[in-house]
Transcriptional regulator (Streptomyces filipinensis), 287 residues
Amino acid sequence: MPGSIPSRLGPYSDRVKNVSLDEVDHVDRAVLPIGTDYPPGHVLDWHQHRRAQFLYGATGVMVVDTPEGTWTVPPERAVLIPATTRHRVRMLEVSTRSLYVEPAAVPWWPVTCTVVDVPPLLRELLLTAVEFEADYSLSGREGCVVALLLHEIAARTPLPFHVAVPAAADLAALCRDYLAAPDTGVTNAAWAARAAMSERAFTRRFRAETGESPAVWRTRARLLAAVPLLRTASVTEVSGRLGYASPAALTAAFTRAFGMPPSRFTTSHRRGGGTHREDGPAAGGDA
């Protein structure tokens, strides 16, 4: 696994914090909680896990790429990743709390990545579970905490923080480039020219691959790009950087797409709301 670091006392005697999944995957537990602190801008390159994963960002923003799409995970949200899904994660000042789950234990797990909210109870259960030893007791308090975690996760509803990426390599390249640098000057005609197609044929093919027109897709991708920017910039600054006519225009579009205003993700809002934050030593790990 990428970013593996050794535990200090071995997989059974150490708390499961800042350790590689490979070190504990063999432990006979359906659910393995692992907490990891990442340096700013850390990228976990393409990899996959045998287990399903519940990946929670206690701090920062995560961007999860799979061959099928991109999921932006705002602060204090999580993403459910199906077992054996190839994925890449960009960590923007992130401290994670993960659960790695045997697929047979969660037949209800979604078949594609899914971003969900993390209410206070679920958050506290996660923070508690990552302090367990790898071979935690299945009876008593520890077993009950883990069982309740799965009940709480099963009750979550999906949040719309994602865009699909076409399977066709040429269309996927256009989308990946745009996700890396959203540009309001890009047009359907420009994309069609790059694909060596007429604009009408290109639009029809793009819609068939993604379920959306190119213009609608770009609008959503640009709004998703606002989420990591809001970590360090105001709504006014982000609206200008993304080409919106005013902060009100960004706020209206963002709220329409995601059901909440962009101010919810600014640093000032999170500080005012008493955001729980755990800082620790930077480390590599699994995501």
Notes: The CA atoms of residues 39 and 144 lie 33 Å apart. The beta strands are 31-37, 43-47, 52-66, 69-73, 77-81, 87-101, 114-117, 158-159, 162-164. The radius of gyration is 20 Å.
